[in-house]
Structure formats: structure tokens, C-alpha cells
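BUG: 3D viewer hangs when loading the predicted structure for this chain

Environment: internal workstation, default settings.
Expected: structure renders.
Actual: progress bar stalls at 90%.

Input used:
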Amino acid sequence: MSTAVSEKSGTWRNWAGNVTALPVREVTPASVDELSAAVRQAAEDGLTVKAVGTGHSFTAAAATDGVLIRPQLLTGIRKIDRTAMTVTVEAGTPLKRLNMALAREGLSLTNMGDIMEQTVSGATSTGTHGTGRDSASIAAQITALELVTADGSVLTCSRSENPEIFASARIGIGALGIVTAITFAVEPVFLLTAREEPMTFDKVTAGFDELFAENEHFEFYWFPHTGNCNTKRNNRSAGPENPVSPVRGWIEDEFLSNGVFQVANLLGRAVPAAIPSIAGVSSRALSARTYTDIPYKVFTSPRRVRFVEMEYAVPREALVETLRELKAMVDGSDLRVSFPVEVRTAPADDIPLSTASGRESAYIAVHMFRGTPYQAYFTAAERIFTAHEGRPHWGKVHTRDAEYFSRAYPRFGEFTALRDRLDPDRRFANDYLRRVLGS
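C-alpha cells produced before the viewer hung:
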């Protein structure tokens, strides 16, 4: 056996440092068979099992006091099918490695989130998304998946094989089993032209419907305590490639967006009264720019400044009103918020627990610098989001429970019934899943 089993496992921490867990043991399986054996052994020992990715969730979705499965040996591309235009990839593969490998093969995912540190299974299981008028979350691009269930059996799921499991397991929050491989739809690599430019809050909100309709991928950041936003429009381009120059890329994406931003946040944490002034400077630090590159170099950017995040999906038509209420709340409070608020969109999809399930959605993400008290801000923001029938991202801070979700998701009962069938003994349960899905 090449499995690395550690009986004295240490404390597990997520990326933001706001979640810790103390598992009984850690297992790093080198094959799907070894993972199945680890699940069966956990059952014999009466222990729960959770797989962890890179810990980029801000919720305790992956926390366990039982057996912690680390998937870092389950990585790499299993198969590229150029006829079906799909790629099958092991669940522990980081999105960064997948994106780079696909680019070498002249292929790309259609859409992706704004970071690529997560594993493919961690990102899809929590509903990670980018922004898109017509193209949806990463999970919506799945055409098949392989799942190890509570009794250790391995199921292949697609629209034609185990279709009811496939429907739900694309965003399963780890409740239905452990995903071991994912097949994504891909397309020939293409070019995107990104146009980034400052715009006032009033102009963005007044013109949001047009900005959304005219661009394949539109997003913007509003800087609290200011009336300033940064907008980004990504649209397909015939070329030629015109990437950001290495020097300008370093200045803007590393020095300003990470280095200076880190220092500004440290200063803001030490002297909260300075935050509105810092925000005014930050919101004007980045100038307009246009560049053309392959998708992952346009969609994603490095995020080295650590933070805690809450993100809610509201019906797209409710976005502007929700955002104006959020701004009025911040302006009328003594909160000091040093991180911009991120706004994105997604079309409706057919995944039961997707935040965009059955409705066109807009996302509002609020962040606080790590180590700064975030509860007052997030509580006030959450009150506004839930008043607009908001659905929280499964991997980001929220206080909602199963009762709320049973009203927020039309197909919630379909998911929980499948969970009862696949995991009656709750082998994959933890405190978070008990709260959001019921016991």
C-alpha cells in the first residue's frame, strides 16, 4: 500500500485562518481504490470522513474531527477527448494546473472564477463561479463525475448514467460522497480583451443593465467610503494577443493590488479611522487599461492579501437596489471597511444547490482584512442580502440554516432526499452540513 496514513494528525487550518479542525487521522490516498478503502475503514471505526482541498472556503465545509482525506496525490489529467471536447481530471488537481495544461493543449474552460488556487473538486463542490452573461459557474461546465459513496463504492455519474446523482453532485458540498474525478466541457482556446476602467458608483448602478447586456463578462468593485468603482469588461476577441507588459503587470497586479494593498490594510487595521482616506487613494490607484490574452490570464489574478469573505447571490433584477442599500448602510454606520465590494453575475442553471439554480443571479461579495473584526459588517450586510432572497455561497461566511435554504432553493428537498439515500449514516457529515442541510 502506498497510502500515507498519519495517525497523529495535526490541526488543519483553512486559508483565511478562521476555521480549524483536529481530525483523528489524515489519509493521503494515491488511487481511487485507496480512497474507497479509507472510507470503508472509517465506517468500521465509526468515524466521519471529509476531503479537503486547498482550504479556500471560509466556512467549515471541509472540517472534521474524524478522517481527513487529502487529495494531493489524486492529480493530473486522465483523458482529453477532442471529439466530445471534454477533459477528465483527477479531483485533487489545482485549477491553476488544469488551466495551464489545457492551454498547452490549445483548450480552455469557457468561464472561471477570479482565483485558481483551489482544487477542481473543492471549487466545484462549493459552487465557485466567475462572472458571465451567458456562461455559468465552473460546476455548470461539468459533463460527468466520479463519486466514492459512503459504502466505498465508486459511481460514474453523467446525464445518461446515474442522472439524478449527477444533477445534485455537481455542487454537493461534500454531503453526497467524495468526488474523485471530474469531466469538464472544454473548447478551443480563445482570446479575451479585458477593458478595465474607473467609473463612479452612480454611473455603474444607473447603467448596470446596459453594461451587463453589452458584455460577455462584466464585473466591478465598489470601494466603501467612496463613490468610486473599478469596472472590468471581458469580451471574446479576434486578436491579436496584446498581454499586459511584465513591468506594468508587476506594478499593478503585484505591487499595487497585493503589496501596497497589504500595507494599506495593515495600516487600516492599526488605525481604523484612516480607512476612508486610504479607500479614497486606493480607489484611484489603478488607471484604465486594455489588454488581450488567453482566458485564464484574463479571468484570474493573484490574491495574496488574506481576508474573510461573505458572498450572496440575489436575483439579478434586485442587484442595484441591494447594492444601494449596502452603500447607504455603510455610509450611515461607523464601520470602517478597507476591502472593495465585488459584483458579478451568472445565468440561471439547473443544479439543485447552485446559487444560480433556476434564476439569473448577481453576486455581491463583502470582504474584511484577516484579523479585523468582521461580524458587525457581515451581519448588517447579510440582513440586506436575505431581505432580497439572497443565497449565500456555500464556501463563504454566512449564518443561514436548513430551514432558510428549504425556502431559498426550490429543489432543496430533492438534494436532501438523495443525501438520505446515498449517506443514510451521515458518514460525510460535519457541524456545517448539519446546520445547512439538517441532520
